[in-house]
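#dry-run=false #mode=assembly
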Amino acid sequence: GDSVTQMEGPVTLSEEAFLTINCTYTATGYPSLFWYVQYPGEGLQLLLKATKADDKGSNKGFEATYRKETTSFHLEKGSVQVSDSAVYFCASYTGTASKLTFGTGTRLQVTL
Amino acid sequence: DAGVTQSPTHLIKTRGQQVTLRCSPKSGHDTVSWYQQALGQGPQFIFQYYEEEERQRGNFPDRFSGHQFPNYSSELNVNALLLGDSALYLCASSLDGTKNQPQHFGDGTRLSIL
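#status=ok
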Protein backbone atom coordinates (compact mmCIF):
# COMPACT_ATOMS: atom_id res chain seq x y z
CA GLY A 1 0.00 0.00 0.00
CA ASP A 2 0.88 3.67 -0.13
CA SER A 3 3.27 5.06 2.47
CA VAL A 4 5.01 8.31 3.34
CA THR A 5 8.27 8.59 5.26
CA GLN A 6 9.40 11.80 6.91
CA MET A 7 12.58 12.68 8.72
CA GLU A 8 12.43 12.28 12.47
CA GLY A 9 12.06 15.35 14.61
CA PRO A 10 12.21 17.52 16.48
CA VAL A 11 14.12 19.90 14.26
CA THR A 12 15.44 22.87 16.21
CA LEU A 13 16.65 25.93 14.29
CA SER A 14 17.57 29.49 15.05
CA GLU A 15 15.49 32.22 13.46
CA GLU A 16 16.53 33.01 9.87
CA ALA A 17 18.12 29.57 9.41
CA PHE A 18 17.47 27.42 6.33
CA LEU A 19 14.96 24.62 6.72
CA THR A 20 14.75 21.27 4.98
CA ILE A 21 12.33 18.52 6.01
CA ASN A 22 12.75 15.36 3.97
CA CYS A 23 9.80 13.38 2.66
CA THR A 24 9.72 10.31 0.43
CA TYR A 25 6.70 8.33 -0.73
CA THR A 26 5.70 5.01 -2.20
CA ALA A 27 2.46 4.82 -4.11
CA THR A 28 0.66 2.89 -6.78
CA GLY A 29 -0.03 5.19 -9.67
CA TYR A 30 0.76 8.88 -9.66
CA PRO A 31 -0.20 10.57 -6.41
CA SER A 32 -0.73 14.21 -5.63
CA LEU A 33 1.58 15.38 -2.84
CA PHE A 34 0.87 17.78 -0.03
CA TRP A 35 2.43 19.44 2.98
CA TYR A 36 0.15 20.23 5.88
CA VAL A 37 1.02 22.17 9.04
CA GLN A 38 -0.50 21.68 12.47
CA TYR A 39 -0.23 24.30 15.20
CA PRO A 40 -0.82 23.29 18.83
CA GLY A 41 -4.44 22.48 19.56
CA GLU A 42 -5.52 22.93 15.97
CA GLY A 43 -6.37 20.85 12.93
CA LEU A 44 -4.27 20.58 9.80
CA GLN A 45 -3.81 23.49 7.43
CA LEU A 46 -2.83 22.93 3.83
CA LEU A 47 0.57 24.53 3.25
CA LEU A 48 1.28 23.61 -0.36
CA LYS A 49 0.62 20.96 -2.99
CA ALA A 50 1.95 19.50 -6.24
CA THR A 51 -0.08 17.29 -8.53
CA LYS A 52 2.44 15.99 -11.05
CA ALA A 53 6.14 15.35 -11.52
CA ASP A 54 8.40 18.44 -11.52
CA ASP A 55 5.61 20.65 -10.14
CA LYS A 56 6.76 23.06 -7.45
CA GLY A 57 4.34 23.98 -4.71
CA SER A 58 4.97 27.17 -2.78
CA ASN A 59 3.29 29.22 -0.06
CA LYS A 60 4.41 31.66 2.65
CA GLY A 61 8.08 31.20 1.71
CA PHE A 62 7.89 27.39 1.84
CA GLU A 63 8.60 25.34 -1.30
CA ALA A 64 8.60 21.70 -2.30
CA THR A 65 9.25 20.07 -5.67
CA TYR A 66 7.63 16.79 -6.79
CA ARG A 67 10.56 14.55 -7.78
CA LYS A 68 9.31 11.38 -9.43
CA GLU A 69 12.79 9.96 -10.04
CA THR A 70 13.62 10.05 -6.32
CA THR A 71 9.99 9.73 -5.09
CA SER A 72 10.57 12.76 -2.89
CA PHE A 73 8.82 15.97 -1.89
CA HIS A 74 11.18 17.75 0.48
CA LEU A 75 9.97 20.91 2.21
CA GLU A 76 12.29 23.93 2.24
CA LYS A 77 12.28 27.48 3.51
CA GLY A 78 15.11 29.92 3.16
CA SER A 79 14.65 31.80 6.44
CA VAL A 80 12.45 30.42 9.22
CA GLN A 81 10.65 32.51 11.81
CA VAL A 82 9.59 31.71 15.37
CA SER A 83 6.00 31.68 14.10
CA ASP A 84 6.86 28.70 11.85
CA SER A 85 7.17 26.48 14.92
CA ALA A 86 4.64 23.69 14.38
CA VAL A 87 4.33 20.08 13.26
CA TYR A 88 4.66 19.49 9.50
CA PHE A 89 3.06 16.53 7.75
CA CYS A 90 3.84 15.25 4.29
CA ALA A 91 0.97 13.41 2.60
CA SER A 92 0.14 11.65 -0.64
CA TYR A 93 -3.25 11.18 -2.28
CA THR A 94 -4.33 8.83 -5.03
CA GLY A 95 -7.85 9.05 -6.43
CA THR A 96 -8.25 5.27 -6.53
CA ALA A 97 -7.61 5.03 -2.79
CA SER A 98 -9.66 8.15 -2.04
CA LYS A 99 -7.53 8.91 0.98
CA LEU A 100 -4.60 10.94 2.20
CA THR A 101 -1.67 8.90 3.48
CA PHE A 102 0.35 10.85 6.02
CA GLY A 103 3.85 10.66 7.35
CA THR A 104 4.36 10.66 11.10
CA GLY A 105 5.03 14.40 11.19
CA THR A 106 8.12 16.48 11.95
CA ARG A 107 8.08 18.95 14.81
CA LEU A 108 9.90 22.20 14.04
CA GLN A 109 11.07 24.48 16.83
CA VAL A 110 12.47 27.86 15.90
CA THR A 111 14.25 29.88 18.58
CA LEU A 112 15.39 33.50 18.71
CA ASP B 1 -16.91 31.59 4.00
CA ALA B 2 -17.00 29.05 6.80
CA GLY B 3 -14.40 26.34 6.72
CA VAL B 4 -14.84 22.82 8.04
CA THR B 5 -16.53 22.85 11.43
CA GLN B 6 -16.56 19.99 13.91
CA SER B 7 -18.44 19.43 17.14
CA PRO B 8 -17.89 18.96 19.95
CA THR B 9 -14.32 20.16 20.43
CA HIS B 10 -13.68 17.90 23.40
CA LEU B 11 -15.42 14.82 24.73
CA ILE B 12 -14.80 12.47 27.64
CA LYS B 13 -16.34 9.00 27.62
CA THR B 14 -15.83 5.74 29.47
CA ARG B 15 -15.04 2.32 28.04
CA GLY B 16 -17.99 0.59 26.42
CA GLN B 17 -19.91 3.77 25.70
CA GLN B 18 -20.88 5.07 22.29
CA VAL B 19 -20.05 8.44 20.77
CA THR B 20 -21.18 10.55 17.81
CA LEU B 21 -18.99 13.24 16.29
CA ARG B 22 -20.27 15.78 13.78
CA CYS B 23 -18.80 17.62 10.83
CA SER B 24 -19.98 20.33 8.47
CA PRO B 25 -17.91 20.58 5.31
CA LYS B 26 -16.52 23.72 3.78
CA SER B 27 -19.03 25.54 1.61
CA GLY B 28 -19.10 24.05 -1.88
CA HIS B 29 -17.56 20.72 -0.85
CA ASP B 30 -19.45 17.47 -1.24
CA THR B 31 -17.01 14.86 0.05
CA VAL B 32 -16.19 14.20 3.70
CA SER B 33 -13.35 12.09 5.04
CA TRP B 34 -12.64 11.14 8.64
CA TYR B 35 -9.22 10.57 10.17
CA GLN B 36 -7.98 9.43 13.57
CA GLN B 37 -4.83 11.08 14.92
CA ALA B 38 -3.25 9.44 17.94
CA LEU B 39 -0.90 11.52 20.04
CA GLY B 40 2.41 12.10 18.27
CA GLN B 41 1.29 10.34 15.10
CA GLY B 42 0.07 11.27 11.66
CA PRO B 43 -3.64 11.04 10.88
CA GLN B 44 -4.96 7.63 9.83
CA PHE B 45 -7.79 7.37 7.30
CA ILE B 46 -11.05 5.94 8.67
CA PHE B 47 -13.46 6.38 5.76
CA GLN B 48 -14.78 8.73 3.10
CA TYR B 49 -18.36 9.66 2.25
CA TYR B 50 -19.60 10.89 -1.09
CA GLU B 51 -23.21 11.15 -2.25
CA GLU B 52 -24.33 9.83 1.14
CA GLU B 53 -22.43 6.56 0.66
CA GLU B 54 -19.23 5.22 2.14
CA ARG B 55 -16.87 5.26 -0.81
CA GLN B 56 -13.69 3.99 0.77
CA ARG B 57 -12.70 2.61 4.14
CA GLY B 58 -9.42 2.34 5.99
CA ASN B 59 -8.28 -0.37 8.34
CA PHE B 60 -10.76 0.30 11.16
CA PRO B 61 -13.19 -2.16 12.75
CA ASP B 62 -16.94 -2.11 12.24
CA ARG B 63 -17.33 -0.30 15.56
CA PHE B 64 -16.55 2.79 13.50
CA SER B 65 -19.44 3.80 11.30
CA GLY B 66 -20.59 6.96 9.63
CA HIS B 67 -23.26 8.76 7.77
CA GLN B 68 -23.53 11.61 5.31
CA PHE B 69 -26.64 13.73 5.05
CA PRO B 70 -28.17 15.38 1.96
CA ASN B 71 -26.60 18.71 2.97
CA TYR B 72 -23.18 16.94 2.87
CA SER B 73 -22.63 17.12 6.62
CA SER B 74 -21.44 13.94 8.26
CA GLU B 75 -21.35 11.99 11.50
CA LEU B 76 -18.81 9.54 12.83
CA ASN B 77 -20.11 6.97 15.30
CA VAL B 78 -17.93 4.77 17.47
CA ASN B 79 -19.49 1.95 19.51
CA ALA B 80 -18.09 -0.05 22.43
CA LEU B 81 -15.35 2.49 23.08
CA LEU B 82 -11.88 1.23 24.01
CA LEU B 83 -9.08 3.07 25.74
CA GLY B 84 -7.19 2.97 22.45
CA ASP B 85 -9.87 5.05 20.78
CA SER B 86 -8.56 8.11 22.63
CA ALA B 87 -7.37 10.44 19.86
CA LEU B 88 -8.03 13.58 17.89
CA TYR B 89 -10.68 12.89 15.25
CA LEU B 90 -10.34 15.05 12.19
CA CYS B 91 -12.88 15.69 9.50
CA ALA B 92 -11.76 16.82 6.07
CA SER B 93 -13.84 17.98 3.13
CA SER B 94 -13.11 18.29 -0.56
CA LEU B 95 -14.85 18.55 -3.90
CA ASP B 96 -15.65 15.15 -5.31
CA GLY B 97 -12.63 13.55 -3.62
CA THR B 98 -10.51 13.91 -6.72
CA LYS B 99 -6.79 13.89 -6.30
CA ASN B 100 -6.22 17.44 -7.50
CA GLN B 101 -8.59 18.91 -4.97
CA PRO B 102 -6.91 19.29 -1.58
CA GLN B 103 -8.72 18.23 1.53
CA HIS B 104 -9.51 20.95 4.04
CA PHE B 105 -9.48 19.98 7.70
CA GLY B 106 -11.46 21.07 10.72
CA ASP B 107 -9.87 21.62 14.12
CA GLY B 108 -10.94 18.18 15.27
CA THR B 109 -12.71 16.61 18.20
CA ARG B 110 -10.46 15.41 20.99
CA LEU B 111 -11.93 12.23 22.43
CA SER B 112 -10.67 10.93 25.76
CA ILE B 113 -11.68 7.50 27.02
CA LEU B 114 -11.43 6.82 30.77
